Amino acid sequence: MAYRQYMLVCGGTGCESGKSDEIYKRLIAEADAQGVKDAVQIVKTGCFGFCEKGPIVKVLPEESFYVEVKPDDAKEIIAEQAVKGREVKRLLYDKSTRKSNNKIDDIEFYQKQFRIVLRNCGVINPENIEEYIARDGYAALEKALFQMKGEDVIAELKTAGLRGRGGAGFPTWLKWDLTRKAPGDVKYIICNADEGDPGAYMDRSTIEGDPHSVLEAMALAGYAIGSNKGYVYIRAEYPLAIDRLKIAIAQAKEYGLLGDDILGSGFSFDVEIRLGAGAFVCGEETALMRSLEGNRGMPVPKPPFPAISGLWKKPTVINNVETLANIPVIITKGGAWFAKIGTEKSTGTKVFALTGKVNNSGLVEVPMGTTLREIIFDIGGGIRGGKKFKGVQTGGPSGGIIVEKDLDAPISYESLAALGSMMGSGGMIVMDEDDCVVDVSKFYMEFCVDESCGKCAPCRIGTNQMHDILDRITKGKGEEADLARLERIGKAMTKASLCMLGGSAANPTLSTVRHFREEYLAHIRDKKCLTGKCKDLVTYSIDPSKCIGCTLCAKKCPVPCIAGERKQAHVIDASRCVKCGECYAVCKFGAVVKN
Fold it and tell me: What is the DSSP letter of 196?
């Protein structure tokens, strides 16, 4: 059937929390009610990436890009766009200057992006294999099976220079080659979808929007190394991604693209889903394999490496979702094409979950070599509320904080490591002048304490010691010698921990002590938190010259500890104050002072 229009509705987890599923159903109902159901196809896609403005509806061929759509808007979208052929201007991203027929690429959030991993997200229905096939889906697998040998596939990856996107940046081709050459008739492919960094959702969104790209890559990996079995290890907290994976696996089997004798080639490959319980340490490959085997997820020393002795002691390739999603494109277009993108040592693109105090949060895919300034200020739209930029943390709990003077550093594995941070899986959290670096460091260390498996002493003891020191500093009980202790313990953990959880847990603290030493000293010497985030170091008072006695602060106080007659200046009893900040937040006259 030929449709006059296509309406693409974001069906990612973020937009679904904003009722995009209801929007989708309402659009279908309105198309039927207004007599245009045969002229308009309404499709639920994956994430568009521009999460700040979701839910999103995009209409083709007009390229209308509607943001912050609500279910009640469905009737107007159908009536205006589908029936009358007119855009609903109030829902457009740029209501004042945007002209009809502008493309999504004209929106500044997308202008510097280059989508390889996210190429199909927001474009196709992830639950329809035919839409994936229509965009060259499974063409790479067909090419490999009938035109290439296993070693040829690996050679293309070597030419491409693809490195693991899970954090370590290990050359993908070398991992595959070592496993291919390892002795043994049984070998395994594992997709690591156990994305545990706070604020990170790159892998989840990729699977939600384009699950077949991961399955095709796993089959390519199986063909390249001589494996017939793959596992997707994914955390159970990702129900939508899991459901779409199940649908994709069933469809691929139905079309002869998974299972026995794929496309009549004689090659067989099957995929199973295994659910993880959300342990951060299971992102580490040896811990993941132990969990997949049914044991407690704890890392084990290497060597032997998984390529030689992995899952059930068989040679195993483990790649994360983002790494795998690149591979079908590399095989289809060639490794030389991919190698031209990015930098010499860090080729291709990188997906980041841009969050924190930035105007345009969302999923961002940029060529390696793009600067942090371009990501935060050009794509991200700068700091929310016009506040001053303070720092950006890359790499989640394992990454350091990068400051303003280094914003022009290009994104690459080497450059971020030189700045005391790391690429990690792709979390990028922006902080402004109101964030306390001591409090942030304490948060990440508390996370690492909770997530440590406890197997090795440097991590088990070191994270607790560093957390206790940071906790004392935030409560005004620190001493200057604590800074040297933090650095000494952190460096010992980095060198001696069994896996990268402990080996990188100190990075946020070490980087903030280096860049924001004076802020630490203010907590220690002056017993002051300049941002007011450390409650034990904050006191509230009322300026009688500004207080008009409106009583709003007293009404909001949960203790209560604020006294005063109406139309007279109020007073806070500091001995009873629980420092919740409600009075400061509700005062319209600036009378409540945070000291």
Answer: -
Dihedral sign for Cα atoms in the order 123, 126, 128, 130 = positive
Residue among 534, 391, 401 at smallest CA distance from 471: 534
* Biggest distance spanned by C-alpha atoms of the chain: 87
CA distances to 19, 29, 121, 452 from 91, in Å: 16, 20, 21, 46
Token pair belonging to 553: 């602060």
Between CA 83 and CA 91, with CA 87 as vertex, the angle to 5 degrees is 125
Rounded CA-CA distance 588/116 in Å is 49
Token representation of residue 326: 């690149």
What is the signed CA dihedral for 239, 241, 243, 247, rounded to 10 degrees? 180
Beta-sheet strands, E only, within 266-423: 270-276, 316-320, 349-356, 362-367, 389-394, 401-402
Single-letter amino acid code for the residue at 150 = G
Strand 571-572 and strand 562-563: pairing?
A: antiparallel
Q: List 355's β-bridge partners, or say none.
A: 429
Cis preceding linkage at 303, omega within 30: yes
Distance CA 192, CA 288 (A): 8
User: CB-based contacts of 538: which residues, under 8 Å, 6+ apart?
Assistant: 529, 532, 579, 581, 594, 595
pLDDT tens per residue across span 28-80: 999 999 999 999 999 999 999 999 999 999 999 999 999 999 999 999 999 99
Separation in Å, CA 17 to CA 10, 42, 215, 240, 303: 11, 19, 27, 12, 44
What CA–CA distance (Å, rounded) separates 59 from 77?
10
Taking alpha carbons only, the member of 394, 403, 390, 382 closest to residue 428 is 394
3-state secondary structure string across 83-145? HHCCCCHHHECCCCCCCCCCCHHHCHHHHCCCCCCCCCCCCCCCCCHHHHHHCCCCHHHHHHH
Both tokens of 72, joined, read 């009640």
Q: How many CA atoms lie within 13 A of 138 on its CB side?
A: 19
Query: How does pLDDT run across 233-282, given as a tens digit for each residue?
Result: 999 999 999 999 999 999 999 999 999 999 999 999 999 999 998 888 88
Within 10 angstroms of residue 203's Cβ, the number of other Cβ atoms is 31
